[in-house]
Amino acid sequence: MPKIRYILAIESSCDDTAAAVMREGELLSNVTAQQIVHSKYGGVVPELASRQHQILITPVVAQALDEANVRLGELSAIGFTQGPGLLGSLLVGTSFAKGLSLSLGIPLIAVHHMQAHVLAHFIEDPKPTFPFLCLTVSGGHTQIVKVTDHLKMEVIGTTRDDAAGEAFDKTGKMLGLPYPAGPIIDKLAREGTPQFTFPKPRVPGLDFSFSGLKTAIRYFLIARMKESDQFITENLADICASVQSTIVTILLDKLELASSETGIREIAIAGGVSANSGLRDALGLRASANGWTTYVPKLEYCTDNAAMIAVTAHFKLLGEQFVGLDVRPAARMAF
Q: What is the DSSP string of 165-215?
């Protein structure tokens, strides 16, 4: 009788310390510890993030194993995020995974963080059928990925400068909102009307650009605050609705173009910004207009989590795609 294979997965690419346990593709536990220490700084402080990972990783892994009712000796492989991400944070997760792999004598599986976001769609049903397009949107990345198999992906569109998630967060900072601002803008946008117009970048092909939009928002706010120093306070919900509507339209216009050019109507979204309600609602409208079948992950699988690392490691385990103890974390990685 074949041995049941258990995978422990570790995610530490930024400021969330996470661990998950998977059995033959079935998720048994998924634990995430958020680092609240960064909120007073208005963004993630890399040195603080790595120190917090060192404090949290052992109890988080212990909790994941406990919730899965799995002992260390039962593990078949260790999956971990190799990159991209903050180097210090990645180093903590990589070193921990290496130590476990060496002490237990089991294989080590390196996972690309953005590929894992795409494969988050295979944690639970319904799952996309191949080929499909995935719009991956986070604080550091904005990409359109053509997926032809679990481990065969091609980036056909990417941002030339800033990511959509960064545009949300920087707008929030200009508006005086606490970090992270994306969820707050989303909440306020539901209470407002997109009555303000912002320019959309004229980038050819399937690539994105958000640096110009950030600049336009900044100068818009400066001009309006000269007219009334209460402008932001009195129009906060409408400003958020307008910014969110602009970003969502930019994203979905490119996704629609990608679908038209490739002929693919299986459409997925992933990454932290895929939790945005405005994006989800607008995707539904585009789906109806274009005959798309769409896939949107549960909210817990949108932001950084170890379940997506586990499912990616599962497919790599099936293909025996292992790495040695000389593997190094990488702040930047080719897709």
A: HHHHHHHHHHTTPPSS-HHHHHHHHTTS---S--PPP---TT-B--HHHHH
